Amino acid sequence: MSGDGGTAPPLRAAHPRRASRHDAVVVGAGPNGLAAAITLAKEGLDVHVVEASDTVGGGCRTTELTLPGFRHDVCSTVHGMAAFSPFMGSLGLPALGVEWVHPDAPLAHAFPDRPAVVVERDLAATAAGLGDDGRRYARVLGPIVHSREAFADSVLGQIVRVPPHPVFLAGFGSLAALPASVLARLFAAPPTRALIASAAAHSTAALSQPFTGAAALMMLGTAHQVGWPVARGGSQALADGLAARLRDLGGTIETGRMVRRLADLPDARAYLLDVSPWQLARICSGDLPGDYLRSLRRYRRGPGIFKLDYALSGPIPWRDPACLRAGTVHVGGPFAEVAASEAAVAAGRLPERPFLIVVQPSLFDPTRAPEGRHVAWVYGHVPNGFNLDITERIEARLEEHAPGFRDLVLARHVTSSADIERYNPNCAGGDIAGGRNSVMQIIFRPVPRLSPYTTPNPRIFLCSSSTPPGGGVHGMCGYHAAKAVLRRLSPAR
Ligand SMILES: Cc1cc2nc3c(=O)[nH]c(=O)nc-3n(C[C@H](O)[C@H](O)[C@H](O)COP(=O)(O)OP(=O)(O)OC[C@H]3O[C@@H](n4cnc5c(N)ncnc54)[C@H](O)[C@@H]3O)c2cc1C
User: Fold this and answer.
1) Which residues face 231 on adjacent strands?
2) For residue range 418-445, what is the model confidence (pLDDT) as tens digits?
3) What's the CA gap between 54 and 320, in Å, rounded?
4) Residue-level pLDDT at 165
5) For a substitution probing ligand 1, which of 155, 261, 465 has the most ligand atoms within 8 Å of its CB?
6) Which protein residue's CA is at the shortest distance from atom 49 of ligand 1?
7) Residues in the ligand 1 pocket, defined by CB under 6 Å
8) DSSP secondary-structure letter at 454?
9) Are 102 and 232 in contact (CB under 8 A)?
10) HSE (side-chain half, CA atoms, 13 Å) at 23
């Protein structure tokens, strides 16, 4: 593992177009780029953000993808991670115009032939719905739900350091390190096992892989701890709130400018890149040593996704109406089916019966669609770079669980893995998780270093979801990266 120093080529001395000098320039106005910029600006630093797109937000944007008046979140909608994030919690989001809207229940796992499993915000209520598994569920999730600070630190803190809650971490870690396939066997009933599988499937890894248990515990833990809210009006409200906070602090944001070389940026004491490791290698190729660049290029991509956004004439007609109480519905059938779907994707094959995540925010936030109408999205995992249209396969699966779904479709917008990469170069081959969640890349992302936010060049930092704690709208990668910058600029900190 390399340390923070290293033999680095200095940033090239003379850049004729570099007129102004900032304390820090951030490339990318995603949740992590904005979080990094805010953290630095709060310390009085002069920060400038450069964003390729015409709007801020990265994976946190909202637009009318289908019909006028239907507001779709292009990427993220479900903000359990944001609601749980200590960084987001420190901002005073309501004053920034961000209002969390809570579905009646965070999550349901739907089946075509039996009642859904519903995850209520309340742990005891959820356990009560799990029959004989209820007591075991409460025993597994209870310590997580009752130790918010230690839980947040374990899943959103930096990975390589002395843990501040060692007792909690020992208990949590022994379950989190398990493959989801083993964690699920703690439970007897097929619906509970299916729930563990679908919660773990958010990791986009095969469920036989160690540490997929962590994804299940994190998803379910946040559901009970803070719920899985959506932002009223769309996720753009959160991105706009972050941008407003940055501007209040004196930071500046330039949109519509794709950064291709570091030399094109204004002069700065530190550069923070909210980009993928492969982009970091391209943008900074002349400013980082060859062995580090090679390690960045070896970083592995995760699976892609295939997403459909819908304008609907009514709520999704789930076989089990309990699903209408949930903001997020998992469509995956029993444990074995979810596991087979994720295993196929991890092996580079399209699953026969894809596991699907369905989100219908307009059920709880009527501002998303004209009166009586709805928006919904659904995505399935596909092999990285997979580029065929699987609309038919996905809708056939939805019809099994919600007969008559297709009759409600007023318009649909299709996003393939290639489309998503075109939309945001961070999503290479459709990877929405900032890189494959293999055991190595969960612990050491993007490369093994004591502080993974630093690079061998003392002025260049990485702050995207390709650093710990990884994917999701929580801003903690940016926050930790900014702390590394502050330590570098003022070593006394
Ligand atoms: C379809 C989809 C659904 C998702 N659903 C959820 C969800 O419900 N809940 C959740 O918590 N997470 C969800 N996620 C994941 C979440 O959106 C990401 O993990 C999160 O946005 C990562 O934040 P980031 O700041 O690291 O990167 P990004 O959000 O990708 O932002 C990076 C920004 O940098 C800009 N950029 C990149 N390269 C350059 C360059 N060279 N020059 C200038 N600008 C550049 C991009 O345009 C972008 O604005 C979803 C993601 C997708 C794609």
Assistant:
1) 100
2) 999 999 999 999 999 999 999 889 888 9
3) 41
4) 82
5) 465
6) 58
7) 27-33, 50-53, 58-60, 75-78, 81, 258-259, 274-275, 279, 305, 307, 379, 420, 424-427, 432, 464-465, 471-473, 477
8) B
9) no
10) 21
> What three-state secondary structure class fits 259?
coil
Angle subtended by helix axes 134-145 and 166-176, to nearest 10 = 140
Atom 10 of ligand 1, nearest CA residue: 472
Instruction: Measure 415 CA to ligand 1 centroid, in angstroms.
Output: 15
Enumerate the H helices of 90-179 as residue ranges.
Answer: 123-128, 134-145, 148-156, 166-176
Nearest-angstrom CA–CA distance, 59 and 464: 11
Does 19 score more than 70 pLDDT?
no
Of 142, 172, 135, nearest to 157 (Cα)? 172
Other beta carbons less than 10 A from residue 256's beta carbon: 10
Average pLDDT over all residues of the chain: 93
pTM to 2 decimal places: 0.94
For ligand 1, mutation pick of 60, 74, 76, 257 (most atoms within 8 Å of CB): 76
C-alpha distances out from residue 37 to 152, 476, 481, 484, Å:
22, 12, 10, 13
